Amino acid sequence: GVRGRPTQRVTEDKQEIIDYIPLPSSLSHIRTVQITDLYKVTSLCMDVDQVRWQDRPWAFKLTSYNPKGNLREIFILDQLSHSPFVIQLEAIVIDRDNLIRGFLTPFMPRGDLADVLEMRHTDEGYTNHDVSTVALDWSIKLSWAHQITSSVADLHAVPACHGDIKPRNVLIDEAGQALLIDFSPVGITKAFAAPEILAIFTDPEVEIEIEITAMADMYSLGLVLYVLAEETTEVELPLVWRNEDTPMWYREAAQKVSRRRL
């Protein structure tokens, strides 16, 4: 596109090897849009495009090569429509044969949590090596921590698990709220995956989707909260602090908890 203007219509052409799934009747209450009504602006990542529809920008997550995973994500988003800190499903994208080609969610121009942290530090002239600097007010970080944690709690209440909780899967909307996305990841992110998942990830006999648990999600969530607290995009494992290396924010939090228990 030129200056955000769409330059091509999305077509139905796709490799025939993909077995698209018909739209089930249980999802008939969700709005649908024909894929040919979308105009592609740009690619956002491997399986997500920015498109225009009804004169507004949207994120279009394509079915790609994981039709079952895409359908699973639609079901999860539908069940989480009440959650204020989960990306909202706007419409299911179908073709003329009523086969699911993906779905639309609001486009977030501010980007994800990692983008926001990097941008704030760049604006302030900080780097990841400036360990004592704080570019974000703690009230903002605590608010985002609450929102991200709430979204994971809502997901686990479905019940369902995520499998790839990381800063790149947390978008910041224009109101400044954190929204969890990507509920059917095609893989894991090693830097944020739980040890028990890393141990079996390369085993071809194991279906990772089955092995993902709420406990594994909580491990990943903890690392995301660490990234948020430390305002870093780098995580060096294992996270074990000794003596003076323990961050001040962690010491203060631990002291408050200890005082409450006494």
TrEMBL record:
This is Kinase-like protein. InterPro entries: Kinase-like_dom_sf (IPR011009), Prot_kinase_dom (IPR000719), Ser/Thr_Kinases-Pseudokinases (IPR051681). Pfam families: Pkinase. It comes from Rickenella mellea. One of its GO terms (molecular function) is ATP binding. Signal peptide: none annotated. Residues 1-262 form the Protein kinase domain. SMART domains: S_TKc (SM00220). The lineage of its organism: Eukaryota, Fungi, Dikarya, Basidiomycota, Agaricomycotina. Keywords: Kinase, Transferase. SUPFAM superfamilies: Protein kinase-like (PK-like).
